[in-house]
Design a protein that fits this description.
This protein has 195 residues and is mainly α. The protein is built from 10 helices and no strands. α2 crosses α3, α3 packs antiparallel against α4 and α7 packs across α10.
């Protein structure tokens, strides 16, 4: 089993900001090879003791929110531990443990909110990135874009195939016209709600 420090060193230092949001089969395989057993242990409650410190909670969130998106890309399983990550994130934010972790690592406390298909979580994500992440950085733009998608559709259309959901006509047009990337461009240019 990995330790929280091993997960944080891997994600924050070895992978680092330049690769956090890349879609790479090599990175996906590396994370799966190194951390699948840890993720499975977490699903059985075997890592709940990590939730007793800011750094342990951050490692737990990364393991349950970020890593499944790599390990199980394009499948429903990629989102299967979102609830665990969300519960940990909300607990940590309530205790202000996020503020004990320096940016850019701090953003991972807010990512479960950004990944949520609940508008209330999306609103909170935008507020947290705006107030607690040095002017939000590029993540504030993406938090606003995620919120805008949820405002329009109540869900992320680009998850539909993985989750076995039917695509409605409005979502199909959205996808055909650039999807998420188009929303980011709209917000950058001031065309979509950016507040």
């Amino acid at each position: 089993m990995s330790t929280p420090d091993e997960i944080l060193t891997y994600w924050l230092d070895e992978v680092g900001p330049k690769k956090w949001y890349d879609s790479s089969a090599k990175l996906d395989a590396d994370i799966r090879d190194r951390f699948l057993d840890d993720w499975e242990a977490s699903q059985k409650g075997g890592l709940d003791h990590w939730l007793t410190s800011p750094s342990g909670t951050l490692a737990y969130i990364i393991l349950n929110d970020q890593f499944p998106r790599n390990m199980f890309r394009d499948t429903a399983k990629a989102f299967s531990s979102d609830a665990a990550a969300m519960a940990a994130a909300k607990m940590a934010i309530a205790r202000e443990w996020d503020m004990k972790i320096d940016p850019p690592a701090r953003q991972f406390f807010y990512m479960p909110l950004m990944h949520s298909e609940c508008l209330t979580d999306q609103e909170r994500s935008v507020r947290l990135f705006a107030k607690r992440m040095e002017a939000g950085g590029s993540n504030l733009l993406h938090a606003r874009a995620h919120r805008e998608v949820i405002r329009r559709f109540g869900r992320f259309p680009y998850r539909n195939a993985a989750l076995g959901r039917s695509m409605n006509d409005k979502e199909r047009v959205f996808t055909d016209e650039g999807g998420y990337g188009a929303v980011v461009s709209e917000i950058r240019s001031g065309g979509a709600t950016s507040g």
